[in-house]
Amino acid sequence: MPDTLAFDPSRLKFGIGQPVPRAEDPTLLTGRGNYTDDIQLPGQVWAVMVRSPYGHGVIKGIGTEAAKAMPGVLGVWTGADLPKFGPMVCGMPLKNADGSAFKSTQRQPLATDKVRHVGDPVAFVVAETKAQAKDAAEAVELDIEALDAVTDASAAAAPGAPLLYDEHPNNVVLDFAAGDSAKVTEAFARAAHVTKLSIRNNRIVVAAMEPRSAIGSVEDGRYVLRVGCQGVFGLRASLAGQMGVETKQVRVLTGNVGGSFGMKAGLYPEYPCLLHAAKQLGRPVKWTDERTGSFLSDAHGRDHEVEAELALDAEGKFLAVRLVSYANMGAWLSAVSPLMGTGNFFKNVQSNYATPAIEVRTKCVLTNTVPISAYRGAGRPEGNYFMERLIEQAALEMGKDPVALRKLNHIRPDQFPYSAASGSVYDGGAFSALLEKTMEASDAAGYPARLAASKAQGLLRGRGIGNFLECTAPPTKEQGGIRFEKDGTVTIITGTLDYGQGHWSAFAQVLHQSLGVPFAQVRLLQGDSDELIAGGGTGGSKSIMASGAAIAEASEKVIEKGKAAAAWALEAAVSDIEFEAHAGPEASGRFTIAGTDRAIGIMELAAKLRATPQKPEGVPENLDVTHVFDQAPMAYPNGCHVCEVEVDPETGVVRIDRYLAVNDFGVQVNPLLVAGQAHGGIAQGVGQALLEHVVFSEDGQLVSGSYMDYALPRAGDLPSITTESHSIPCKTNPLGAKGCGEAGCAGSLPAVMNALVDALKPLGITHIDMPATPERVWAAIQDAKA
Predict the structure, then answer these.
(1) CA-based, 20 to 30 A from 354: which of 278, 408, 491, 756?
(2) Is this model's pTM higher than 0.85 or not?
(3) pLDDT band at residue 446 under the 50/70/90 scheme
(4) Count of beta carbons in the 10 Å neighbourhood of residue 456
C-alpha cells in the first residue's frame, strides 16, 4: 500500500473517476425492482380512464348509469362530479414579444365543455378488479358533437383555423421573441452570404419502458400518491396546490422508475382523480396505463417548424443566426411546454461558436394533439441541430471545408470566460482541439477509401459532423442528507430521482471519496417526499452537479461534527483532530490525533455515538447531516460526433456504418455511466433522425398509435458506438462536472442527418427532414432523378 503522502485518491477503486458498475443492476436485472405496478396495497381497487375518441368536439352529455350498474363497479366520475381543483398550468415567467402577459391554459383533470385531443380524459371508472373497470369504462356513453380539428402548428395559427379556446386568438398561446433584433437585421443586411433552411423537428412519442402508473390513497388523513416521477419534492408541491391543501397534507412515494426522459416529471389528470376516489371510497385506487393509452395521454416531445438563417461574411465568419418558428404545444400546456422552442432554442443555437448576434421568434401554438412536454434535451439538441445543418449548408454553398468553417468560428481558449450573445457565460472549453481529435480518431484520412468501397457496391456513402454545446438546466437548491444507520450502512438523502441514470453508484462514489465510507455500505434514498426539505428533481443534465455538490458539502459538515465527536472519543482537543478520508485504496475515513497513531474510524465513531446515550455537552448526538446546496450556474457540456452512413439508392434504406463521439463532460465521476448515457442519447437521436414520427389524421386521430405504426430503433439499427473523452473541468460547480444525460441527442441529430445529406449531395439533394425513413429517402432520390 502506498504511503499517505504518495496516495492519490483518484485511484480509489470506488472513488471519483472510476468506472464502477451500477449498484442498482443486480436488483433490476433479476426482476426484483419495485415499480408502481408491482405494489399491491390492502383493499386496493382499480381505475380506468375514459378518453375522448374525437380530436375536437363539444361535450353534450356523458351517460354513466349503465357503467355504474355493472358488476364490481364502485363509482364512475365525470368532470361534473369532481370538486374544482387548482388548474394544471404552465407557470413559467414568460411575456409576449409586445410585453403583454403570457396566459396559460387552465386544465382540469376531466374535460367538461370540450374535448381537444383524442385521448382527452372525460371520465373514470373504479371497480374491484381491472377487468371490471375496463368493461365498465366501455359502457360509459359519450355524446360529443365533433368539430373540425387542426394538428399542425402553422396551420393552427393561420386565419380561419379551428379555434381550441376563445381566450387564445389564432390558437397562439405565446408569441415569443429573444435577442437583439436590430443587430441581427443589420448583420444580415451586410452579410456576404446568407444560408436559409426550412427544418421540421418531428414529433416523437417518449415510449418509456414502464407505462405511467399511480396509486392514490388516504393514510392518516393525508393524501398519498405512489407514482413514477422525476422528483417527489416538486411533485408534492404541485399536487398539494391542485388538491387545495398544505404540502404537509400530501406525501409522494416513488420506487424504481422505468424511464421518463422528461415525460413523467409533472402533473397528469389521473393523479387528482385517483386521490379523490380514494378519499370517497376509503380504499387505495390504482391505475396503470396500457400502451395505447400511453400514446394518447403521455406528453409527446419535439414538434417544431423552423425557418433557420445564418449570415456570414466573405471569409466565412458568422455574423448572426436567426430562427423563426412555430412550436406545437398540443391541446394543453404542461408545466414547461413553451421552454423548448423559446428559451432553449435561444440558449443553445449559439453552440460553441462566436456568433455575435442571435434572434429567436417563436409562436407557441395550441393544436388538437396530445400535449407536448420536455423530452431528452428539451430544445437543446434542436438548437444544435439547426446550427449544424446551417453550417453544413453554408459550407456547401460557399465552397468551404465544413471542418475549417467550424474552426474559424469556434470560441478560442483565450476568449474565456466568454459572454455569448445568448446570455450565457461559458467558463471554458477547447472546441477546435476537440474537433481535431475527433476527426483524427474517426480516421478521416481513411474516408476516401471507404467512400470508394461503398461506391463499388452501388451504395451512397456520407460522413456527418455533429459539433455541439448544450446549456444544462441551472442546478436548483438540492438536499444532501447523510445519515449513519443502526445497521452500519450510510444513507444519502437527495431530492433528485433516478429513473435509469445510475445515481446510487455515482453518489456513493462522491461520498466514498469525501468521507471514506465503504462503498458497499452506502444506500440511497430519493423517493419519499417526507424525507426532503429541498429537491429539484432530475432533469436538464444537472443531477451530479446538484446532488453531487450537495453530498460533497454535506460531507464537510460531517467532518466538522466528527472532529468534535472524535475529540471526545480519543480524549483530545478538537483543534488536534485531523480527518483523513483515505490512507490507501481500501482504508475507510478516520479521525486522528495530529502527530500520533491514535485514531478512530468514521464508522466506528458513528457506532460509538449511537451506543452512548449520555454524552458531555458539545458532543454531537450523531454524525447525521441535513444540508441544502445552493444553486450553481449552469454548465456547458460539449463535444463532436462523427457518423458515416451508407444509403441504398434502390430502396432508400439508410445504414449507419461507423459512429464516434468525443465529449467534454468535465470531471466524470463514473466514466462507465457516462458512456452509457451517451449511448442512450445517441440511440434516441438515431431514432428521431431515421425512424420515429408521430402522425395525426386531419381530424386529429393518432395514426401512429402503436408499435405496429411507430418505429423505435432496434439493436440492428445501431452500429458499435465508440466514445472518447477530451475533458476540461467545469469551474462553476464543486465537482467540476458538466452533465451528460442529454448530450447524446445533441450530437447525434446533426451527425446522422449531415451524414445522410452528404451521401445524397452527388444527386443534388441538399436537405431532407427527419425522420429520414426509407420511403422519404427513396422519394427524394426519385425526385432528384426526375
Answers:
(1) 756
(2) yes
(3) very high
(4) 8
